[in-house]
Design brief:
heterodimer, A: 118 residues, mainly beta, 7-stranded mixed beta sheet, 4-stranded antiparallel beta sheet, globular, B: 110 residues, 6-stranded mixed beta sheet, 9 strands, 46% strand
Chain lengths: 118, 110
């Protein structure tokens, strides 16, 4: 069974940093693109970033470029999102999601809440 | 303002045919596949339709998708109360070099 479990969320002050983790199990993690997708309270879904199987390609939504870094450790079956210079508008539930072969976001984690507030 | 445009709300009676639209442009829906996600209250999104009209295992066949030009649609044939949820369309955007979602449509039972 495919499982994605996010962790690392919490309350952080504006300008602060946070590192999210996603532990994957039940599939060959190193064979799939992985994504972070966020959802602000009461709002819709927003794709944040994705990373290729071997980390050779990474893409980001414009609003986080230069502030967020996606990475992965295939030996640990883990996905990460390093978030720096956090802003109030980054407050959201952050989901880890797998992209299958030509099938985007086919499995999702339960999400971890990030709150940016003073 | 989302790159893909969906109506914010829709409603239907049990057994009715319900359609949700998703409008985009030549750089996303016009040139890439469209996917649909269902989010039940308080839960993570779930893949509903991929590559316009393919259903993952376990998704009832009353859900179907279609595309015409730069727009796509999700249709529920025989709407059921358990289908009350938020629905999102998504596609890759060649100009933005990233995934874009619609703003979501909240579907309710009348």
């Amino acid at each position: 069974e495919v499982q994605l479990v996010e962790s690392g969320g919490g309350l952080v002050q504006p300008g602060g940093s946070l590192r999210l983790s996603c532990a994957a199990s039940g599939f060959s993690f190193s064979s799939y693109w992985m994504n972070w997708v966020r959802q602000a309270p009461g709002k819709g879904l927003e794709w944040v970033a994705n990373i290729k199987e071997d980390e050779s390609e990474k893409y980001y939504v414009a609003s986080v470029k230069g502030r967020f870094t996606i990475s992965r450790d295939n030996a640990k079956n883990s996905l990460y999102l390093q978030m720096n210079s956090l802003r109030a508008e980054d407050t959201a539930v952050y989901y880890c999601a797998r992209s299958g072969y030509g099938i985007p976001f086919d499995y999702w984690g339960q999400g971890t809440l990030v709150t940016v507030s003073s | 303002q989302s790159v893909l445009t969906q109506p914010p709300s829709a409603s239907g009676t049990p057994g009715q045919r319900v359609t949700i639209s998703c409008s985009g442009s030549s750089s996303n829906i016009g040139s890439n596949t469209v996917n649909w996600y269902q989010q039940l209250p308080g839960t993570a999104p779930k893949l509903l339709i991929y590559r316009y009209n393919q259903r993952p295992s376990g998704v009832p066949d009353r859900f179907s998708g279609s595309k015409s030009g730069t727009s796509a649609s999700l249709t529920i044939s025989g709407f059921q109360s358990e289908d009350e949820a938020d629905y999102y369309c998504a596609a890759w955007d060649d100009s933005l070099n990233g995934w874009v979602f619609g703003g979501g449509t909240k579907l309710t039972v009348l």
